[in-house]
Amino acid sequence: MRHFDLYDADQIDQLVHPENFQKISSGSSAKVIFTDFAEHEPLVIEASSSAIEAENMMRRSHVRLKLVIDEQGLFLGVIALEDLSDGEIIKKVAKGYNRDELQVADMMRKRQDLKVFDYADLDLMTVADVLSVLKLSGHQHCLVVEREKHQIRGVISASDIARKLKMDISIQQPPKFAELYLSSLHR
Fold first, then answer.
1. Boundaries of each CBS domain copy (predicted)?
2. Nearest to 113 by CA among 154, 73, 83
3. Which domain holds residue 103?
4. Among 88, 145, 163, 172, fewest CB within 10 Å belongs to which?
5. pTM confidence score
């Protein structure tokens, strides 16, 4: 058996992170800011889960988005932490839902309502291109799909991009027609 020594750690105080080795800029390929489900397990939640419990669990684990699946593991939509806010729950209760019986399925963004990036396009896009699309659409997250295979390949997150670029990125929801109309009345 070969001999190896152990060393004192008293002079070691820095942690290494992947970002320390990746020099990412707005001109970098979009693939460097993409969470690929071929390499990382997707974060999922069942549609029948309690909305209140889902919100608590997502806050505790600092997760802002989960993919919603049915009992067979088929993709139904996504649930963002903001979809589970008190304001959104109050809106559902005002429509007659019982707060304690609300499920993730009641609060989620349905698959047919989502806009996605095509995985093949990421080869052509830069980080700046992705940010531009996210800002124009008002999305904090965007799924990436392989359309020919009918598969979700991964997700892009504005907060991940901000962290990797070490900058603040503000993405606002585009105003709804009603908001534009009301603001025009006050002029």
1. 38-101, 108-171
2. 83
3. 23-171
4. 172
5. 0.78
